[in-house]
Each structure stands twice: as structure tokens, then as C-alpha cells.
Fold this sequence. Notes:
By secondary structure, the chain is an all-alpha fold. 68% of the residues lie in helices and 0% in strands. It has a domain at 1-47.
Amino acid sequence: MSVQPIDLQVLISRMPDIGKDQAIQKDAAQIAQIAQGNQLVQKTEQQSHSVNESQQTDEVQRAKDRTKGGGKFRPGRGRKGKAHKEEAHEIFSDPEVGKNVDITG
Length: 105
């Protein structure tokens, strides 16, 4: 299929449109990057001007619990823990347990 003179005339008359389309495609990456940068700037400005809940609240609360000594029950610590530990030991102690070992299987 050969190119006819009429086809060349149409192509030549459309050259400025093709040039504009190629320039737009070339600049599209830069325009997209600029738009993304603007969105990032707007997002950071909004975050800096808004009141946000601190993410450190859990860590601060744990530190306060540790300094107060409150929080979870820890057996074996303090006077109450020792009494509870001895009581638990007395409940489970059996003189017959552990004396005989069955090795026959």
C-alpha cells in the first residue's frame, strides 16, 4: 500500500495538531508530578493546622502504670504475692507425687 499525494496533503495539514499532542504527552509526566506535589503540600498543611490525637498515649499510660506500680497482678511480688504463692504451693503439694516412676511403659 503506497502513500498517495492526497494522503500527504492530509498528513501535512495535521502536523501542528500532532505536534501539540506530542508536546502534551511529553509534559504530562511533569504536570502529574506537580499536581501530586500540590496535593501533598495541601495535606501537610491540613495536618499541621488540625488537632490530632497523640499516638504516644498508650506508651505514656504504660509508663505511668509502671511508676505507680499498678496495672496487672504479678504473683510473687510484694507481701500479697508471697502469701498467695505459698498458699498455691500448699494446695498442689502431694508427698506421693514423683516418688514412683513407671518405666515399663
